[in-house]
Amino acid sequence: MPTEIRRIIFTDSEIQSVLDDFTDRDRGPIPRGRVIGYEVVKDKPLEVSARIQSEDGRQGSYRLNEAFLVAALLSFLIARKVPVPRQANKSVKRSDKGVVFDLVTESWKL
After folding, report:
1. What's this model's pTM, rounded to 2 decimal places?
2. Domain extent for 14
3. Which residues contact 63 (CB under 8 A, 6 or more apart)?
4. Is 92 a member of any domain?
5. Number of domains in the chain
6. Do 53 and 62 contact (CB within 8 A), yes or no?
7. Residues 38-76 as b or e (16 or more Cβ within 10 Å = b)
8. What are the pLDDT digits (tens) for 50-103?
């Protein structure tokens, strides 16, 4: 059975834009606002701390786990009409080039 592997690499500034776009839509356990920075706090599984300035001007740091990052990346890609296989196993990890989003599909039959 063939396996399809897609790897999308996001730079640090692109990840900040992805998080900014996702938080601007009022999703997840964090307030709506603007992401003003982030840093990786754990590699496996990937976890980041995002600094967010809320709409009322207050700033706070929020830890975002791998599931949140995958949801943010999926939302970003879908909004830009990038096809993403629903059945693919999705994961994120840190690399020297930024954040890597892997999609692995093993459901093809010959």
Report:
1. 0.87
2. 4-105
3. 41, 47, 48, 49
4. yes
5. 1
6. no
7. beeeeeeebebebbbeeeeeeeeebebebebbbebbbeb
8. 999 988 899 999 999 999 999 999 999 999 999 998 889 999 999 999 999 999
